[in-house]
Design a protein that fits this description.
The complex is a heterodimer of chains A (811) and B (156). With 811 residues, chain A is an alpha+beta fold. Chain A has 22 helices and 29 strands. Chain A folds into three domains: 160 residues, Aldehyde Oxidoreductase, domain 4 (2-Layer Sandwich), CATH 3.30.365; 189 residues, Aldehyde oxidase/xanthine dehydrogenase, a/b hammerhead (Aldehyde Oxidoreductase, domain 3), CATH 3.90.1170; 329 residues, 2-Layer Sandwich (Aldehyde Oxidoreductase, domain 4). In chain A, a hairpin with a 6-residue loop joins strand 24 and strand 25. In chain A, helix 16 runs parallel beside helix 17. Chain A is globular. By secondary structure, chain B is an alpha+beta fold. Chain B folds into two domains: 76 residues, Roll (Ubiquitin-like (UB roll)), CATH 3.10.20.30; 69 residues, DNA polymerase, domain 1 (Orthogonal Bundle). Helices cover 33% and strands 16% of the residues of chain B. Chain B contains five helices and five strands. In chain B, strand 1 and strand 2 form a beta hairpin. The longest helix of chain B has 15 residues. The model of chain B has no long low-confidence stretch (mean pLDDT 97). The chains are: A alpha+beta (811), B alpha+beta (156). Chains A and B meet through helix 1 and helix 19 of A and helix 2, helix 3, helix 4 and helix 5 of B.
């Protein structure tokens, strides 16, 4: 165990100085000699056959170097390998980088063009003639599954592209024993985290060596690597990932299409090609979080004990099959939330529609799972005339039950859920608040309090999907592996090579703090090699900015590499100082032997020996002071791979948080004001509180904004009406409430420092917290909240609907 | 028909030939090479391309480069003094007033403009002053706190 001088407190940000001076390096900041600029040809129709694409005039335009149409795509590339989210499809549907014979959403790429400047490219794009045969747009899941509906994929014979179910425990028994069945129908809309930096890529191809280098703001280098191999047959691929201007899941999957297109343009033109997405392209085609509808039933005892939960989910997955089940399959990650319910049944329906494909976004489906639990808990409380807080206390997993195995096979590492809830109620002064609410209601004010709880899972396990798709022939892999390298330089400073790119979570700062404690050196003496470069970085399948992997695999790898380097440093120093390694301590980059103040040696002196003075090295010592460590989660068993009962760990660490929202609703306008927002959370050992708080504030603010109105809106023709950030309704400083966060960590017994995930977590319960608080505010009016978003318009309609209903009954 | 402009940027005079349709944001990034001015929407919604034009806070995507003839611009690169961070920049670093860094140049300049006119702003005034700059990462908490800290330093 090392001293924790830097772990657990804030440190000077490593990333901050370059960003505040405008010296960050984002993909668009790079310029290569002779570089061309690409633009994408996109479908203006939601659903149309592509009859003919004529690019003759564009090709003949001076300054245009390369044009790609669906015909070229078919000739020069192969479809992507069907991913694990398409594993349940009855038929394989080839998906290329562009549409081939049919466009299935507004903005779907049809082709691409590269020219000397962006302006010239945009001008030339208008010369490409596309003849479309428009088809009826399918925009509603209920309509989509009717036999009369137009089909998106003729091969599937239905727009219900996938249906499947999972069952844990004795669900029929639970519903038989119940005193009451509580039912609800719930909906979550389409939204996204809309990273401020749009998708961006530069591709450069060396025809002689057939090496392709891609600079791209992708969160998962492996996806790019695989895509270029699958689509273009390239084996020698270098992926460079500069600073990423926000990710949130948005830059994982669909970005591969554009990397393939830009790479093809680079191969075709013999020049480097840059492509920068614009905002409206991002809104229409870079991926949305899934529109989800849930039919929920809970079997409950009179005292509020939940015996069983059943839900049917209908996902509006848009016009692609590559990620069609991603929001349903992720329900397994937080299926039990914080509750000890033994019997659960879930059924998923993935319905293809003429909308943007769905992609991961801050929690992928987990905000929906939390919404199911927390809305039904409120409904149970209401129907049984119990306090919503009591119903939750009754069902929480207890701290003494940790590590706790859930019915689906997840193993919750640690946590004190009742403790978090108690502390949150105490801090918000819940009883006092209820009294105030009562008083204010009498004066006509609509005040509401919502108290919810949720888990934030971290880590990855693709083997989860084997439990969902029994027909899966090939294992999609299991667990995660990620590497890190640390090098002591000749001058005594240290350089880290991380396996994962960074998109704003302070990877450089946090890993330096960990390595600094292990090696006994100031974090100021440690720098991280940037940008991420797949030719240099050790990596693995968890080399990713997704799934809350950083805390587990990257920290594990840095911890391992630094520990290994420490052993080498001590072995060399012991030899030079003529001491035993166990008698040595390290502080401030100086190795000191016990008992003698003069028996010491600095890292710089050791560096000089390790890289240049063979005579001073001990016998058998591997020269140099560098270490690489590949980390995989050592507690992956049990349930790493589903057994006969289908139990599987979907993720490996479980942070948790209680969210309390206090809101006021303006009756005349439907506008919701968030008066207070409190989070009491457990993220395990906090390595840097400023970093972790930043993740909590940011993800909570997004969840709140989602609940209160940001979102995508389509018309009945499948045209996206929210093409700008203003129309979409992104919250600014003026709409975003202050968020209070308190930590009550229960360190994980399974991770190197007790750390757990801290990223998307607060985006998981926050939509439910707002829904709960708004419903509570509107309780005097008898309004039920079943659907997000709660925009002023939606809330006003809820109030009006109730009032007109009341007038009818009164009249 | 290209146009000639003479513009002072971060204290240095540039004489450049520009296309009439070139936006100021792209002129700064591509012609002058100051890539700290970021582009997030090109229609004035996000604030990533915020700069100071003759001392006024503007979104550089809403102007053509040709409109800046004989005018003076300060971009994020012009704020630090000989490598020493401006107190506002320092407050953003100290207080983790950023995550991915993409909105940061615009945020810092918006804060700079605000504190120049109102050295002791309330939280409400800070939020109003930054209201034209979107951030998708932070929930604005640490940005607002950083501006409060910066105000203390600037006033000292």
């Amino acid at each position: 165990m090392v001293d924790r001088k830097y772990i657990g407190r804030t440190a000077r940000s490593k990333e901050g100085p370059r960003h505040v001076t405008g010296r960050g390096h984002f993909t668009d900041d790079f310029t290569l000699p002779g570089m061309l600029h690409a633009v994408i040809l996109r479908s203006p129709h939601a659903h149309a056959r592509i009859v003919k694409v004529d690019a003759t005039a564009a090709r003949q335009t001076p300054g245009v170097f390369a044009v790609i149409t669906p015909a070229e795509i078919q000739q020069k590339s192969r479809p992507f390998k069907p991913g694990r989210y398409a594993a349940g499809l009855k038929k394989t549907i080839p998906e290329y980088a562009t549409a081939i014979d049919k466009a299935r959403y507004v903005g779907e790429p049809i082709g691409a063009l590269a020219a000397r400047s962006r302006g010239a490219a945009e001008d030339a794009l208008e010369l490409i003639g596309v003849e479309y045969d428009p088809l009826p747009a399918v925009v509603d899941t209920a309509e989509a599954v009717r036999p009369s509906s137009a089909l998106l994929f003729d091969e599937l014979g239905s727009n219900l592209a996938w249906k499947g179910s999972l069952r844990y425990g004795d669900i029929e028994g639970a519903f038989k024993q119940a005193d009451r069945i509580v039912k609800e129908n719930l909906k979550i809309h389409r939204y996204s985290s809309t990273p401020l930096e749009p998708l961006a890529c530069i591709a450069s191809f060396d025809a002689a060596s057939r090496k392709l280098t891609a600079w791209v703001n992708a969160q998962v280098p492996e996806v790019i690597y695989d895509a270029l191999r699958e689509a273009l047959g390239l084996e020698d691929v270098r992926v460079i990932i500069p600073d990423i201007g926000g990710g949130f899941g948005q830059k994982i999957h669909l970005i591969r299409k554009y990397v393939v297109l830009v790479s093809l343009l680079a191969m075709e033109s013999g020049r480097p090609v840059k492509w920068i997405e614009d905002r409206s392209e991002h809104m229409m085609a870079a991926g949305h979080s899934c529109g989800q509808e849930f039919d929920v039933e809970a079997a409950v005892k009179k005292d509020g004990t939940v015996l069983g939960l059943k839900f049917k989910e209908i996902d509006d997955v848009g016009g692609s099959i590559s990620t069609l089940t991603i929001h349903f399959t992720n329900k397994l990650n937080n299926l039990s939330n914080t509750y000890k319910v033994k019997n659960i049944f879930l059924e998923g329906h993935s319905v293809v529609t003429n909308k943007c494909p769905v992609i991961p976004n801050r929690g992928i489906g987990k905000p929906g799972m939390c919404f199911i639990w927390e809305r039904i808990m409120d409904r149970i409380a209401e129907e049984l005339s119990l306090s919503p807080v009591e119903v939750r206390f009754t069902n929480l997993v207890q701290p003494g039950e940790m590590p706790y195995t859930t019915p689906s096979g997840n193993v919750y590492d640690s946590g004190d859920y009742p403790g978090l809830l108690k502390r949150a109620l105490e801090k918000i002064e819940y009883d006092k608040l209820r009294e105030e609410q009562k008083r204010e209601r009498e004066r006509g004010r609509l005040l509401g309090i919502g108290v919810v709880i949720g888990v934030e899972p971290g880590g990855r396990n693709a083997a989860r999907d084997m439990a969902i798709f029994p027909e899966m022939k090939e294992s999609p892999g299991s667990g995660g592996v990620n590497g890190a390298t640390i090098k002591l330089e000749k001058n005594g400073t240290l350089t880290l090579f991380l396996g994962s790119p960074n998109c704003g979570q302070s990877h450089e700062t946090t890993t330096a703090q960990v390595a600094a404690d292990i090696l006994g050196i100031d974090p100021e003496q440690i720098s991280t090699s940037t940008p991420f470069d797949s030719d240099l970085a050790p990596w693995g399948v968890a080399a990713a900015n997704s799934g809350n992997n950083f805390h587990l695999y990257d920290i594990g790898a840095v911890h391992g590499a630094a520990t290994r380097l420490r052993e080498k440093v001590l072995a060399l120093a012991a030899h030079v100082l003529n001491a035993k390694p166990q008698e040595l301590t390290i502080e401030g980059g100086v190795v000191q032997a016990a008992g003698s103040p003069i028996k010491k040696i600095t890292f710089a002196e050791l560096g000089k020996i390790a890289y240049g003075n063979q005579a001073m090295m001990p016998k058998g010592f591997e020269a140099g002071l560098q270490a690489t460590f590949y980390y995989t989660f050592p507690h992956g068993e049990p349930n790493l791979v589903p057994g006969p009962e289908g139990l599987v760990r979907a993720q490996f660490t479980f942070s948790a948080g209680v969210h309390v929202a206090v809101v006021e609703v303006e009756k005349d306008t439907g506008k919701v004001h968030v008066l207070r927002y409190l989070i009491v959370g457990d993220n395990g050992t906090v390595i840097n509180p400023d970093v972790v708080n930043g993740q909590i504030y940011g993800s909570a603010a997004h969840g709140i904004s989602v609940a209160l109105g940001e979102g995508f809106v389509y018309n009945s023709d499948g045209q996206l009406l929210t093409l700008t950030l203003t129309d979409y309704g992104k919250s600014s400083t003026m709409e975003t409430p202050r968020i209070e966060a308190e930590h009550r960590p229960a360190p994980s017994p399974f991770t190197v420092l007790g750390q757990k995930a801290a990223g998307e977590g607060a985006a998981i319960p926050s939509p439910a917290a707002i829904a709960s608080a708004v419903e509570d505010a509107l309780r005097p009016l008898g309004v039920k909240v079943r659907e997000l978003p709660l925009s002023p318009e939606a809330v006003w309609k809820l109030i009006r609907k109730h009032e007109s209903g009341k007038r009818k009954t009164e009249g | 028909m290209k146009q000639n402009i003479r513009v002072k940027i971060n204290g240095r005079v540039y004489e450049e030939e520009v296309e009439p349709r070139q936006l100021l944001s792209f002129f700064l990034r591509e012609t002058i090479g100051l890539t700290g001015t970021h582009v997030g929407c090109v229609i004035g919604e996000c604030g990533a391309c915020t700069i100071l034009l003759d001392g006024k806070l503007v979104k550089s995507c809403l102007l053509f480069a040709a409109q800046t003839d004989n005018r003076e611009i300060v971009t994020i690169e012009g704020l630090a003094d000989d490598g020493k961070l401006h107190p506002i920049q320092e407050a953003f670093v100290q207080g983790y007033g950023l995550q991915c860094g993409y909105c940061t140049p615009g945020m810092v300049l918006a804060a700079h403009y605000l504190l120049g006119r109102n050295p002791d702003p309330t939280e409400e005034e800070i939020r109003k002053g930054l209201g034209g700059n979107l951030c998708m990462c932070t929930g604005y908490m640490q940005i607002v706190e950083a501006v409060k800290e910066a105000a203390k330093k600037v006033n000292r």
